[in-house]
Fold:
Amino acid sequence: MKRIILFAALLLCGIQSCSASGPSKYGVKVVGEYPHDRSAYTQGLFFHNGDLYESTGQTGQSSFRKVDLETGKVLRKLDFDRKYFGEGSVILDDRMYMLTWTSKVAFVYDAATLKYLKTYSYPREGWGLTTDGKSLVASDGSCYIYFMDKEFNVQRKIRVTMNDRPLRLLNELEWIDGKIWANVYTTDMIVIINPSSGKVEGVVDCSGLLPDSLRCRDTDVLNGIAVKDGRIFLTGKNWPKLYEIRLVNK
Structure:
């Protein structure tokens, strides 16, 4: 698991004190559920051309896989050397990009064949990865989100704030309707971020999404956001289910 230096409660930047001028608050309503590989320590989750893809972490267990949504069956799998702890992934144009946590490298593969193409030096910890259709958009566990070109050169970065305070532990990312959705590590919270200002415009409370009856000893935190034709899907690390949800106002 990632090392946590600060208490999550201190990192949520006073969410309890959100006022009417603060972020919009949402809950979630489950509208569908699907099987999910309980052994998958989910780090990245996304759809591309209608197909579901997932990257997983943990030393000796890191992988990138194509998954059948309806059954949860792994259709194709790329395993990584045990020295790499896999993190966020995304497909942009005809390339698949995948980060590693602390190895200081990022990998590029042909999206169609998963043939290895190149390794890049990566100067930060790798956490979440998504795309706005032009740039690679990445988190590193800090309050910053980085917009990069296809060779991982930083074009710009934004400082994410909630109630005018920096929000750290930004993890898995997804680009939805022109906004960045981010899991906040160690919490059941997703934040919706303005990609220009970095301000959190919405807070999604996902508490109770996975019932206690489905939890076991290795069940870990919420992590994994994907969108397909406007439908939003969520899962977590070592969760047995993937949920389709819709937002409800709180």
Summary: The first strand starts at residue 24 and ends at 35.
